[in-house]
Predict the 3D structure of the following.
Amino acid sequence: MTLNQNLSTVESGLKSELRKKGIVIATLEDFYNWGRRSSIWPLQFGLACCAIEMIATACARYDLARFGAELFRASPRQADLMIISGTVTKKMAPQVVRLYNQMPEPKYVITMGACSIAGGPFIDGTNVLKGIDRYIPVDVHLPGCPPRPEALLWGITELQRKIDGQEIEKNEWYQRGLKREFPIPEFGPKGLIPKFNPDVWRPETASRRRERYGDPILLGKKTAAPKFETFGDPNVKVGTV
Amino acid sequence: MNPAEIKTKLESEFPGIPIQIVGEGLLLGPEDLVRVARFLKESGEFKMNYLSSITAVDYLEHLESVYHLYSVDQRTGPVVLRVRVPRDNPRIPSLVHLFRSAEFQEREAYDMMGIRYEGHPDLRRIFMWEGFEGYPLRKDYLPENEDVLEWDDVEWLERHGVTVPAEYKQYAQDLKAAGKEARAERPKPGAEAV
């Protein structure tokens, strides 16, 4: 005998069949998720040119308010979405992780643009982090350089789809002992320590990028610059060199 | 005013000064830089009162610091000064007391190329953090391999309560035992640009 049948397990086929007849079945979970996904409060901070697109998305022409995510909060303690909009340099990475740690649950992350996904055009730079997902978990990767405002709207609706699919009873932030804080990297003599957090991210065993393109650092021809001295007078000795 | 004219003017002002025209620039010794810059700034003829940029160049055999001077009053310029120093001991007198705009640019050249500007009031790293080793824009600088954990990283992660997978730990230990660092590979000799 099954009393207290869980309505959230009504199958979607039946739901859509009833909807055609004008009957809408909604569960508590639907309302709960609808409320959550319709009031995403992003964290107000930008790192590079993607931030300009993010600002444009929030302004009147693209109007992020239509999707309920217009309330940019200046404090991580009031935000539940972090849009990492731009290049994360190694000097900035500890602060980004610290902001993530200070956000309350439930919290989501969108990486906006090629730089925050994997380093982007600066992937060979010594100063740029090769993707913020080395230190914190990411929900939506949003490619582009920079992504247009429509793309950011797509990213947010994608995140809303993800929120819609979450179940109240299985939500991880209601589980006992959840601690979604990640150690903040430190500055070392050669770069950040650690280089990545193996709990969050692990390098691919075979780097597809290296297979496909080789290592661009290796390929650059590093030779001496042309000898401009031939233009001058070779008899005049200048300086100590 | 072309470099040859400036050179003759400078030679008449400072007799016996070694100056060489290299490209569009005037190659000076580091000991002559300050007096030449002061003359260019203060003489009524040049009035080079704006130091637009200081750049450092790595020529593999030596380092160079390149100065671009403009005259805002006379709308002339640039006068390009180049100072050449050895790689192992790059020391150049600072121009901060003549041009305040030199302060951050000299710090940048120090940070990226390791040229020490003597007499600079506050010569610290500007882009990289204190404690960073090496000068990233020198041509022999090898960046770290960021896909490999080293022993420092493993120790740090374990101190912060992260369990490191055994194979990473083993690899880091092997690297440490071999006394190696995980750096990007050195370019192969004769490798052509693609």
